[in-house]
Design brief:
The chain has 394 residues and is of the alpha/beta class. The chain contains 14 helices and 17 strands. Strand 16, helix 12 and strand 17 form a beta-alpha-beta unit. The mean pLDDT is 96. Bound molecules: adenosine monophosphate (AMP). Adenosine monophosphate binds next to strand 14.
């Protein structure tokens, strides 16, 4: 943990450039989900209360280095003001005179939002000149955008080398939770990797087999492993061309002493739709597809949870969007939540579909930590260095 937190910085009378991720969904010109805005309020409030001027740097959409009016952060400003309960200033450019003018008029405790950093081509190129122009606006840099930390951009990476820098509260919470789950975890550690395809999670599986004690493989990607072991998968989603890769992962797990758990029974149906007629089998019929793990598989996973101290979860165990193929995901999630509530388990989960699945199971609030970052969470699980975090470490 080589980074500093807000507590280590003096904000009184200073202008703090705070990188946030407020890339929120907009419907009919209004923010439809303010979760990301609410998540950065503690950092904004801390700096404002400490007498700092809060200048927010953020991206919105993918304007690809051009000014695209539909991707202006001006449309996020009202939701930010509502969440904060305080007016928020706005500058029509994130650098140069427009930004300087607005910042010069700020009082300690004020908050200003600068226009989309990605309107400048230098942002995604991690351009030193853009970073210098941004850094010239303030005296302290705070990164509270963990979900953008896997990208080396001017406002997430280069700028951190130019000013005294620290992590905001959300970044701090993410890093602490991830460190507890995979850095220096309490053992045994169990990881669940589910979801559609092995091909999108190869690096993840490769990293985890060397680091966790139990690896539960579920969802569509389990089919690829079952097929690689010579088991029938019928018409299931399956990447047959990755059979060799799957066998290599299984062999590596044997070397590292990581116990792999594949489904031992399967819920199969003839079509991918809600309430499709289904049955529980051990061998998938040739004309059926696997859509969920069966009750015996769920029982086996629960047993693993009963001895584990740490759980890290990415990806559903089945086609969780369509009942009843959400049953295994729900049952396992509920058990993890129970063990967490009882103080037996540290449970960390992340990734878009995983958060949706845990919300659907109604237990997300019982997990120790749910990461709101998709790509950054996955890259962290893959064992990659996140440039935005590394830059804070000096
Ligand atoms: P991912 O984005 O890789 O985490 O994958 C999540 C998606 O995998 C969800 O949309 C699930 O419906 C899908 N999925 C999980 N299990 C299966 C399965 N057995 N067959 C087809 N799709 C699945």
């Amino acid at each position: 943990m080589g980074w500093k937190s807000l507590d280590a910085m003096d904000f009184a009378g200073k202008t703090a450039l705070v990188r946030v991720d407020i890339n929120v969904p907009i419907e009919n010109g209004r923010v439809s989900d303010a979760t990301r805005i609410k998540a950065v309020l503690p950092t904004i409030r801390h700096i404002a209360a400490a007498g700092g001027k809060v200048v927010l740097l953020a991206h919105f959409g993918r304007p690809k280095g051009k000014v695209v009016p539909e991707m202006s952060l001006a449309q996020v400003r009202p939701a930010l003001e509502a969440a904060l309960g305080h007016p928020v200033g706005f500058a029509e450019d994130c650098i140069g005179l427009p930004a300087k003018r607005v910042i010069a008029a700020m009082m300690p405790g004020d908050v200003t939002l600068l226009e989309n950093t990605r309107f400048h081509p230098g942002e995604e190129k991690n351009d030193p000149e853009l970073a210098a122009a941004l850094a010239a606006l303030g005296e302290v840099y705070v990164n509270d955008a963990f979900s953008a930390a896997h990208r080396a951009h001017a406002s997430t990476e280069a700028i951190a080398h130019l000013l005294p820098a620290c992590a905001g509260r959300l970044m701090e919470a993410e890093l602490k939770a991830l460190e507890a789950a995979l850095g220096q975890p309490e053992r045994p550690v169990v990881a669940i990797v589910g979801g559609a395809k092995v091909s999108t999670k190869l690096e993840l599986l490769g990293n985890l087999v060397g680091r966790v004690d139990h690896l539960v493989i579920g969802g569509g990607m389990a089919n690829t492993f079952l097929a690689a072991q010579g088991k029938p998968v019928g018409t299931s989603l399956c990447e047959h061309d990755l059979a060799e890769t799957a066998r290599t992962i299984l062999a590596r797990a044997q070397e590292t002493g990581c116990q792999i758990h594949l489904p031992v029974d399967l819920v199969v149906a003839h079509e991918f739709r809600e309430n499709a007629p289904h049955q529980v089998v051990t061998d998938c019929p040739a004309d059926a597809m696997i859509l969920d793990a069966g009750p015996q598989s769920v029982a086996a996973i629960k047993l693993v949870f009963d001895t584990a101290r740490t759980l890290i979860w990415n990806g559903p165990l089945g086609a969780f969007e369509i009942a009843p193929f959400d049953a295994a995901t729900n049952a396992v999630a509920r058990h993890a939540a129970e063990r967490t509530r009882a103080g037996g388990l540290i449970s960390v989960a992340g990734g878009g579909d995983t958060v949706a699945a845990l919300n659907r199971a109604g237990i997300a609030q019982d997990f120790t930590y749910i990461s709101t970052a998709g790509g950054a969470f996955l890259e962290w699980m893959e064992g990659k260095v996140l440039p935005g975090v590394a830059a804070l470490e000096g």
